[in-house]
Amino acid sequence: VRNDTIILKNGGLRAVLAVEALNFNLKSETEQQGIISGYGGFVNTITFPIQILIRSTKTNIDDYLQQVRDVGNKHENQLLKDQTLAYANFMQKLIDVADIMQKRFYVIVPVDQSERRRTIVEQFFDWLHPDDSAAKASVRSHEFNNASARLSERVDLVSSGLTNVGLHIKRLNTRDLIELLYQTYNPKTAQTQKIPKDIDQLKMEKTAL
Known about the structure:
By secondary structure, this protein is an alpha+beta fold. 52% of the residues lie in helices and 16% in strands. It has 7 helices and 5 strands, in the order ββαβααβααβαα. Strands 1, 2, 3, 4 and 5 form a 5-stranded antiparallel β-sheet that branches. It is globular and about 60 Å long. The N and C termini lie close together (10 Å). Mean pLDDT is 81; it is low at 204-209.
């Protein structure tokens, strides 16, 4: 994971956009028709594939409960302190017992190396120098910058199209991507072992799919 981007083993890049859902059924018929029309227009503007991911996960309100406990511990009134902490403990038990689920929506925007045909000269040098080298590392860095720029253009296009439909979009940053991958591939462990607040504390320097 680098520069808010997932780098695949085959060299492809992925940006992940978090999308806030809207309640379509609460919209008027005119608004619904506008949303459908706007989404159709968005789909017709993109010339590359996108992936829509819906994840159902156990509700996590640890940050909220920590804030409540911090507020409770600062209360000088003992009664207010006890009630605030009791509320936090109650909510914690409710989440654990009820197993409340929440849905999150993502749009994955890709850029793949296969989209650019490699020249005969490039293939020749790949064959001539099969081992990794500083030159190859420099080439990879240059290719990453170029592909990253194309990826950003696609992200802007997708964000603009979905925003026009009335959706709120946020591109996941490096930490958000690491958390998403960690929770996806380690669902049970992620419930008990949280990623440190400071990303510099992470032992994992990169994650590749």
